[in-house]
């Protein structure tokens, strides 16, 4: 269950990163509110997952999901560049996440 919560927390990290971009420096109230709510959910689920998962594993997976998710949103939604080096970096991050999962109990 902790892994499910951690995965959802990571997805909410992607949401808040994206809506933070859309908030234009917190100048758009609706996007600012969505950002803050998504942050609370993300941090809350991360905190809950850390009850049973090691700190290093939980935090690394959470930030990794956020980083790769934000990378994909940037490319697919915002039209950012998808250079071979950026794609390789994302693959390395995902590989690290898989290794963290395989090396952790629970």
From TrEMBL:
**Protein name in UniProt:** Guanidinium exporter
An annotated GO BP: xenobiotic detoxification by transmembrane export across the plasma membrane
Native source organism of the sequence: Phenylobacterium kunshanense
Highest taxon in the source lineage = Bacteria
The UniProt entry lists membrane topology as: Multi-pass membrane protein
Name where it's found.
Cell membrane
PANTHER family associated with the record: GUANIDINIUM EXPORTER, SMR FAMILY PROTON-DEPENDENT DRUG EFFLUX TRANSPORTER SUGE
Against Pfam families, the record matches this protein to: Multi_Drug_Res (PF00893)
Which family does the entry's similarity section mention? Belongs to the drug/metabolite transporter (DMT) superfamily. Small multidrug resistance (SMR) (TC 2.A.7.1) family. Gdx/SugE subfamily.
Extract one GO molecular function annotation from the record: transmembrane transporter activity
Q: Which UniProt keywords apply?
A: Cell membrane, Membrane, Transmembrane, Transmembrane helix, Transport
Ranges in coiled-coil conformation:
none
User: Mind telling me which residue stretches traverse the membrane in this protein?
Assistant: 27-46, 58-78, 84-102
What InterPro entries does the record point to? Answer: EmrE-like, Small_drug/metabolite_transptr, Small_multidrug_res
> Which GO cellular component term is one of those annotated?
plasma membrane
Major subcellular location class: membrane
């Amino acid at each position: 269950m902790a892994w499910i919560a951690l995965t959802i927390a990571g997805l909410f990290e992607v949401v808040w990163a994206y809506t933070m971009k859309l908030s234009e420096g917190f100048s758009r109230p609706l996007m600012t509110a969505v950002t803050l709510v998504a942050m609370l959910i993300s941090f809350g689920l991360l905190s809950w997952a850390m009850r049973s998962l090691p700190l290093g594993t939980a935090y690394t997976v959470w930030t990794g999901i956020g980083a790769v998710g934000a990378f994909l949103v940037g490319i697919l939604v915002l039209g950012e560049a998808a250079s071979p080096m950026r794609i390789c970096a994302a693959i390395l991050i995902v590989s690290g996440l898989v290794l963290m999962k395989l090396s952790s109990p629970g």
